[in-house]
Amino acid sequence: MQFLYHPNAGDQTILIQGEQFIHLYKSRRTKHTQVLYLRNLCDDQLYQYKQTQIDKKSATLTLHTQIHSPNTPTHHSHIILARIDSKSLQKALPFLNELGLSKLTLFFADYSQRNEKLELDKIEKILINSSQQCGRSDKVQLEILENLDSVLMLYPQIALFDFGGRKLTSHPKLPILIGPEGGFSPKEKERLRHLPTYSTQESMILRSESACIYVASLLQALHR
């Protein structure tokens, strides 16, 4: 863990309790003399805290110093993903965050599983844990839209990642749209036929979950 997330990091005094207390003092056996590094994932500041009081279920930290220490993606990248199985999405999120994806937009396509509910609290926790582990000073920005109409209204200039497109060998500098398992419906394909379309360099058939990670990885490589 590169730092500890706390929404109030930057305050002069912070109280650590609950899961964070158990993680620090039961699992990691943090010594009371150790300086702790905290971030709030909002302001790129790395805050150093001293432990001033430790009880059985809580610890009080006092701000010692702070450093402007941004560790964020150097280039903006944006994937627009049709809703997929929640467990598959949760598995992909840490990879997307650690690969430096800036923004992830989710929407319902015709073939999306509409009985799947987004556990936003769990998603937030996954992204926070990912940033703590990799050292990223922010996290993927998550956006939720209703359907393809909403996507095209908000993002009229996008690229499509689908079978039969040209190989993605240069960064399109556009949000990239990825369909659900089963792909887009004939009606959706008709609406998207004018978009620039890209596919894998190896002509592999990817699941939506894998396609997200593939695209995020390639976008980072193509920025260099």
Q: How does this structure look, described?
A:
This protein has 224 residues and is α/β, with parallel strands linked by helices. It has two domains: 65 residues, Ribosomal Protein L25, Chain P (Beta Barrel), CATH 2.40.240.20; 146 residues, SPOUT methyltransferase, trefoil knot domain (Alpha/beta knot, 3-Layer(aba) Sandwich), CATH 3.40.1280.10. A six-stranded parallel beta sheet has the order 8-7-6-10-9-11. Helix 2 packs parallel to helix 3. The longest helix has 16 residues. The chain is elongated and about 65 Å long. The chain starts with a strand and ends with a helix.
Main attributes?
5-stranded mixed beta sheet, 6-stranded parallel beta sheet, alpha/beta, 6 helices, 2 domains, single chain, Ribosomal Protein L25, Chain P, 224 residues, 30% helix, 11 strands, Alpha/beta knot
Architecture blueprint of SSEs:
Blueprint (H helix, E strand, L loop, with lengths): L3 E2 L7 E5 H10 L8 E4 L5 E10 L3 E11 L9 E5 L3 H13 L4 E6 L11 H15 L6 E7 H7 L4 E9 L8 E3 L7 H7 L4 E3 L8 H16 L1
Helix pairs in contact: 2-3, 2-6
- Return the string of H and E elements: EEHEEEEHEHEHEEHEH
Identify the strand order in the major beta sheet: 8-7-6-10-9-11
- What's the CATH architecture name of the largest domain? 3-Layer(aba) Sandwich
Total of helices: 6
Number of separate domains: 2
As a percent range, the share of helical residues equals: 25-40%
Gyration radius (Cα, Å) is 20 Å
- CATH topology name of the largest domain: Alpha/beta knot
CATH class of the largest domain: Alpha Beta
The name of the CATH superfamily of the largest domain reads SPOUT methyltransferase, trefoil knot domain
Q: What percentage of the residues does DSSP assign to strands (E)?
A: 25-35%
Task: Assign the structural class, choosing from mainly alpha, mainly beta, alpha/beta, alpha+beta, or little secondary structure.
Answer: alpha/beta
The biggest beta sheet is recorded as:
6 strands, parallel
